[in-house]
Amino acid sequence: MRFDVVTLFPEMFSALTQWGITGRAYEQGLANINLWNPRDYCSDPRKTVDDRAYGGGPGMVMMAKPLEDTLFAIKAAHQSQNVASGPICLLAPQGEIFSQKIAKDILNYGNLTFICGRYEAVDQRFIDRNVDLQLSMGDFVVSGGELPAMTMMDAVIRLIPGALGDGDSAIQDSFMNGLLDYPHYTRPEIYENLSVPDVLLGGHHAKIADWRRQKSLELTLRLRPDLIKSARANGLLSKEDEQFLRTL
Fold first, then answer.
1. Fold match, 2-157 / 174-247
2. Mind listing the UniProt keywords for this protein, alphabetically (predicted)?
3. Is 139 assigned a ligand-binding role in the annotation?
4. 96-150, pLDDT tens digit by residue?
5. What global pTM score does this model have?
6. Is there a catalytic annotation at residue 222?
7. What is the domain partition of the chain in residue ranges?
8. Is 138 marked as a binding-site residue?
9. Which position among 120, 154, 181, 210 bears the catalytic label?
Protein backbone atom coordinates (compact mmCIF):
# COMPACT_ATOMS: atom_id res chain seq x y z
CA MET A 1 0.00 0.00 0.00
CA ARG A 2 1.40 3.36 -1.04
CA PHE A 3 0.56 6.65 0.66
CA ASP A 4 1.62 10.06 -0.65
CA VAL A 5 1.04 12.75 1.96
CA VAL A 6 1.05 16.48 1.23
CA THR A 7 1.89 18.21 4.51
CA LEU A 8 3.62 21.30 5.86
CA PHE A 9 4.85 19.21 8.80
CA PRO A 10 6.35 15.96 7.44
CA GLU A 11 8.26 15.41 10.70
CA MET A 12 5.01 14.54 12.44
CA PHE A 13 4.75 11.31 10.48
CA SER A 14 7.72 9.78 12.28
CA ALA A 15 5.06 8.62 14.74
CA LEU A 16 3.93 6.24 12.00
CA THR A 17 7.23 5.30 10.39
CA GLN A 18 9.29 4.70 13.55
CA TRP A 19 6.94 3.11 16.07
CA GLY A 20 4.82 0.04 16.64
CA ILE A 21 2.85 -1.91 14.04
CA THR A 22 2.97 0.84 11.43
CA GLY A 23 6.72 1.30 11.91
CA ARG A 24 7.35 -2.40 11.35
CA ALA A 25 5.10 -2.43 8.28
CA TYR A 26 7.01 0.57 6.92
CA GLU A 27 10.38 -1.10 7.53
CA GLN A 28 9.19 -4.31 5.86
CA GLY A 29 7.98 -2.43 2.80
CA LEU A 30 4.33 -3.34 3.35
CA ALA A 31 3.43 0.34 3.66
CA ASN A 32 5.15 2.87 1.41
CA ILE A 33 4.83 6.37 2.93
CA ASN A 34 6.04 9.36 0.90
CA LEU A 35 5.95 12.87 2.36
CA TRP A 36 5.69 16.01 0.24
CA ASN A 37 6.02 19.55 1.61
CA PRO A 38 4.30 22.22 -0.54
CA ARG A 39 6.93 24.76 0.51
CA ASP A 40 9.44 22.79 -1.58
CA TYR A 41 7.40 23.64 -4.69
CA CYS A 42 7.03 27.40 -4.13
CA SER A 43 8.81 29.79 -6.49
CA ASP A 44 9.00 32.84 -4.21
CA PRO A 45 11.86 33.35 -1.72
CA ARG A 46 9.54 33.23 1.30
CA LYS A 47 8.03 29.86 0.27
CA THR A 48 4.52 31.27 0.69
CA VAL A 49 1.74 28.69 0.89
CA ASP A 50 -1.11 30.79 2.34
CA ASP A 51 -2.76 34.19 1.98
CA ARG A 52 -5.72 36.18 3.31
CA ALA A 53 -9.23 35.20 2.34
CA TYR A 54 -11.18 37.20 -0.22
CA GLY A 55 -14.20 38.74 1.45
CA GLY A 56 -12.40 39.15 4.77
CA GLY A 57 -12.66 37.09 7.90
CA PRO A 58 -10.18 35.52 10.31
CA GLY A 59 -7.48 33.06 9.41
CA MET A 60 -5.46 32.32 6.31
CA VAL A 61 -6.27 30.15 3.29
CA MET A 62 -3.90 27.62 1.70
CA MET A 63 -3.15 28.70 -1.86
CA ALA A 64 -4.04 26.50 -4.81
CA LYS A 65 -0.81 26.71 -6.82
CA PRO A 66 1.69 25.33 -4.25
CA LEU A 67 -0.65 22.41 -3.59
CA GLU A 68 -1.23 21.80 -7.28
CA ASP A 69 2.48 21.97 -8.07
CA THR A 70 3.06 19.40 -5.33
CA LEU A 71 0.50 17.10 -6.95
CA PHE A 72 2.29 17.49 -10.29
CA ALA A 73 5.50 16.32 -8.60
CA ILE A 74 3.71 13.35 -7.05
CA LYS A 75 2.19 12.30 -10.37
CA ALA A 76 5.58 12.66 -12.06
CA ALA A 77 7.07 10.37 -9.40
CA HIS A 78 4.28 7.87 -10.03
CA GLN A 79 4.99 7.89 -13.77
CA SER A 80 8.74 7.49 -13.33
CA GLN A 81 8.18 4.57 -10.94
CA ASN A 82 5.47 3.04 -13.14
CA VAL A 83 2.93 3.40 -10.32
CA ALA A 84 -0.77 3.98 -11.00
CA SER A 85 -2.03 7.11 -9.26
CA GLY A 86 -4.87 6.55 -6.81
CA PRO A 87 -7.55 8.93 -5.51
CA ILE A 88 -6.67 12.28 -3.95
CA CYS A 89 -8.20 12.74 -0.50
CA LEU A 90 -8.55 16.00 1.41
CA LEU A 91 -8.81 15.81 5.20
CA ALA A 92 -11.56 18.32 6.01
CA PRO A 93 -14.37 18.86 8.55
CA GLN A 94 -16.95 18.66 5.76
CA GLY A 95 -15.72 15.23 4.68
CA GLU A 96 -17.42 11.86 5.07
CA ILE A 97 -16.88 10.36 8.52
CA PHE A 98 -14.08 7.79 8.39
CA SER A 99 -15.03 4.20 9.19
CA GLN A 100 -13.65 0.66 9.08
CA LYS A 101 -15.41 0.16 5.74
CA ILE A 102 -13.62 3.16 4.28
CA ALA A 103 -10.32 1.81 5.64
CA LYS A 104 -10.93 -1.42 3.69
CA ASP A 105 -11.88 0.59 0.58
CA ILE A 106 -8.62 2.57 0.79
CA LEU A 107 -6.61 -0.65 1.06
CA ASN A 108 -8.25 -1.83 -2.15
CA TYR A 109 -7.14 1.35 -3.93
CA GLY A 110 -3.51 0.33 -3.38
CA ASN A 111 -2.44 3.98 -3.63
CA LEU A 112 -3.87 7.13 -2.04
CA THR A 113 -2.72 10.75 -1.77
CA PHE A 114 -3.69 12.64 1.40
CA ILE A 115 -3.87 16.44 1.39
CA CYS A 116 -3.35 17.72 4.95
CA GLY A 117 -4.98 21.11 5.19
CA ARG A 118 -3.80 23.82 7.58
CA TYR A 119 -4.92 27.31 8.58
CA GLU A 120 -8.55 28.31 8.06
CA ALA A 121 -9.20 26.41 4.83
CA VAL A 122 -7.92 25.32 1.40
CA ASP A 123 -8.70 27.38 -1.71
CA GLN A 124 -11.91 25.89 -3.11
CA ARG A 125 -10.54 25.98 -6.65
CA PHE A 126 -7.86 23.48 -5.70
CA ILE A 127 -10.54 21.22 -4.25
CA ASP A 128 -12.78 21.51 -7.29
CA ARG A 129 -9.93 20.78 -9.71
CA ASN A 130 -8.10 17.99 -7.90
CA VAL A 131 -9.82 16.34 -4.95
CA ASP A 132 -11.64 13.02 -5.43
CA LEU A 133 -12.90 12.51 -1.89
CA GLN A 134 -12.97 14.29 1.46
CA LEU A 135 -12.74 12.52 4.81
CA SER A 136 -13.15 13.60 8.42
CA MET A 137 -12.59 11.97 11.80
CA GLY A 138 -15.82 13.41 13.20
CA ASP A 139 -17.75 16.55 13.99
CA PHE A 140 -14.90 18.45 15.59
CA VAL A 141 -12.01 20.61 14.37
CA VAL A 142 -8.28 20.02 14.83
CA SER A 143 -5.36 22.22 13.79
CA GLY A 144 -4.56 20.36 10.60
CA GLY A 145 -5.02 17.21 8.57
CA GLU A 146 -1.89 15.45 9.83
CA LEU A 147 -3.38 13.72 12.89
CA PRO A 148 -6.50 12.52 11.01
CA ALA A 149 -4.29 11.30 8.15
CA MET A 150 -2.07 9.36 10.55
CA THR A 151 -5.08 7.82 12.27
CA MET A 152 -6.59 6.72 8.96
CA MET A 153 -3.27 5.37 7.71
CA ASP A 154 -2.84 3.37 10.92
CA ALA A 155 -6.29 1.85 10.43
CA VAL A 156 -5.47 0.91 6.82
CA ILE A 157 -1.98 -0.44 7.53
CA ARG A 158 -3.38 -2.80 10.18
CA LEU A 159 -5.39 -4.45 7.40
CA ILE A 160 -2.39 -5.14 5.14
CA PRO A 161 -1.66 -8.89 5.14
CA GLY A 162 1.45 -9.47 7.24
CA ALA A 163 1.29 -6.16 9.13
CA LEU A 164 0.02 -7.81 12.31
CA GLY A 165 1.77 -10.66 14.06
CA ASP A 166 -1.44 -12.69 14.01
CA GLY A 167 -3.54 -12.38 10.88
CA ASP A 168 -6.72 -13.02 12.89
CA SER A 169 -6.15 -9.90 15.00
CA ALA A 170 -7.53 -7.53 12.36
CA ILE A 171 -10.45 -9.83 11.62
CA GLN A 172 -11.50 -9.77 15.27
CA ASP A 173 -11.20 -6.00 15.71
CA SER A 174 -14.23 -3.92 16.58
CA PHE A 175 -16.38 -2.93 13.56
CA MET A 176 -14.95 -5.63 11.26
CA ASN A 177 -18.21 -7.62 11.57
CA GLY A 178 -20.35 -4.56 12.18
CA LEU A 179 -20.25 -4.92 15.99
CA LEU A 180 -18.02 -3.90 18.88
CA ASP A 181 -15.39 -6.37 20.05
CA TYR A 182 -16.05 -8.74 22.96
CA PRO A 183 -14.23 -8.32 26.36
CA HIS A 184 -10.71 -9.70 26.71
CA TYR A 185 -8.89 -11.12 29.76
CA THR A 186 -5.35 -12.23 30.61
CA ARG A 187 -3.35 -13.37 33.66
CA PRO A 188 -3.79 -13.41 36.60
CA GLU A 189 -6.94 -15.50 36.71
CA ILE A 190 -8.18 -13.51 39.73
CA TYR A 191 -7.43 -9.80 40.04
CA GLU A 192 -8.72 -7.74 42.99
CA ASN A 193 -11.37 -10.41 43.64
CA LEU A 194 -12.52 -10.27 40.01
CA SER A 195 -12.32 -13.59 38.14
CA VAL A 196 -11.98 -14.43 34.48
CA PRO A 197 -15.34 -15.82 33.23
CA ASP A 198 -15.44 -19.59 33.68
CA VAL A 199 -16.31 -20.25 30.05
CA LEU A 200 -12.93 -18.89 28.95
CA LEU A 201 -11.10 -21.32 31.22
CA GLY A 202 -12.85 -24.48 30.09
CA GLY A 203 -11.21 -24.91 26.70
CA HIS A 204 -14.52 -25.60 24.92
CA HIS A 205 -14.03 -23.63 21.70
CA ALA A 206 -17.66 -23.67 20.56
CA LYS A 207 -18.89 -22.39 23.93
CA ILE A 208 -16.17 -19.72 23.95
CA ALA A 209 -17.20 -18.59 20.46
CA ASP A 210 -20.86 -18.40 21.53
CA TRP A 211 -19.97 -16.43 24.67
CA ARG A 212 -17.84 -13.97 22.69
CA ARG A 213 -20.55 -13.42 20.10
CA GLN A 214 -23.16 -12.79 22.78
CA LYS A 215 -20.89 -10.39 24.67
CA SER A 216 -20.19 -8.55 21.43
CA LEU A 217 -23.92 -8.20 20.82
CA GLU A 218 -24.54 -7.14 24.43
CA LEU A 219 -21.83 -4.48 24.43
CA THR A 220 -22.90 -3.13 21.05
CA LEU A 221 -26.53 -2.89 22.09
CA ARG A 222 -25.59 -1.08 25.30
CA LEU A 223 -22.90 1.26 23.96
CA ARG A 224 -23.66 1.66 20.24
CA PRO A 225 -27.26 0.62 19.46
CA ASP A 226 -26.93 2.37 16.11
CA LEU A 227 -24.51 -0.37 15.05
CA ILE A 228 -27.10 -3.04 15.84
CA LYS A 229 -29.54 -1.30 13.50
CA SER A 230 -26.88 -1.05 10.80
CA ALA A 231 -25.84 -4.70 11.21
CA ARG A 232 -29.47 -5.78 10.98
CA ALA A 233 -30.04 -3.69 7.85
CA ASN A 234 -26.93 -5.21 6.23
CA GLY A 235 -27.90 -8.79 7.05
CA LEU A 236 -25.03 -9.33 9.50
CA LEU A 237 -27.19 -10.75 12.32
CA SER A 238 -28.17 -14.41 12.40
CA LYS A 239 -31.42 -15.85 13.73
CA GLU A 240 -29.51 -16.87 16.86
CA ASP A 241 -28.22 -13.30 17.26
CA GLU A 242 -31.75 -11.93 17.08
CA GLN A 243 -33.00 -14.48 19.60
CA PHE A 244 -30.25 -13.50 22.04
CA LEU A 245 -30.91 -9.77 21.55
CA ARG A 246 -34.55 -10.30 22.51
CA THR A 247 -33.42 -11.67 25.88
CA LEU A 248 -31.49 -8.52 26.78
1. no
2. Cytoplasm, Methyltransferase, S-adenosyl-L-methionine, Transferase, tRNA processing
3. yes
4. 999 999 999 999 999 999 999 999 999 999 999 999 999 999 999 999 999 999 9
5. 0.89
6. no
7. 2-157, 174-247
8. yes
9. 120
Dihedrals phi, psi of 229, to nearest 5 degrees: -60, -40
Q: How far apart are CA 216 and CA 223, in angstroms?
A: 10
Classify each residue of 147-160 as buried b or exposed e, where b means 16 or more C-beta atoms within 10 Å of its C-beta.
ebbbebbbbbbbbb
174-247: CATH number: 1.10.1270.20
Q: Which fold has domain 2-157?
A: Alpha/beta knot (3.40.1280)
**Distance between CA atoms of 178 and 124, rounded to whole angstroms?**
35
Q: How far is CA 234 from CA 128, 222, 229, 237, in A?
A: 33, 20, 9, 8
For residue 166, give the DSSP letter: S
Q: What is the pLDDT of residues 140-192, one digit of tens each?
A: 999 999 999 999 999 999 999 999 977 566 666 667 688 999 999 999 999 99
Give the residue from 3, 27, 61, 21 showing the smallest Cα distance to 165. 21
158 is catalytic: yes
Q: Counting beta carbons within 10 angstroms of the beta carbon of residue 172, is it exposed (0 to 12), middle (13 to 18) or buried (19 or more)? A: middle
